Amino acid sequence: MSDPAQLSALALAATNTASIVVWGIVLTLALVVLLFLAFVFSIFNFWVQALTSAAPIHFMHLIGMRLRRVNPRTIVLANIKAKKAGLDLTPTQLEIHYLAGGRVSAVVDAMIVADKAGADLDWDTASAIDLADRDVLGAARLLQAGELGSDLPIDQLPLQQAPAGSPPVTER
Asked: At residue 136, what are phi and psi to the nearest 5 degrees?
């Protein structure tokens, strides 16, 4: 038979091991919860900004953007700008253009210029001009001045120009 002192020591060691395992699990779960809360709070700001600007974007849509590595700030600000200007664009359209490598803000600006000038520039045309590395804002200004017809010759539009001495502007 075993000595009662040895049994007591074995029981104490088993209790300490179980305690360490339990604490490890608790700390791991706490870390996962903190990371999740940080993720949610990073999106919450954009959701509130969009909601209070009368350009709401569903919270789950913002989570999806973050998971797809889309910059929610770019989409939220472009969506707000479009809604304030009276354009009927969806966050999904903006996100698709972003994922295609387009400059969302430039396209929205061009559509605002064209809309205010009474020119007919739809989203598909504006985004195609941008994705062809053409100056979409310049095209909108040409439409505004009446120098372009409704059949935009995309291949004849000027290339997108970066300011002298600066690297190309990217939204990512």
From this structure: -65, -35
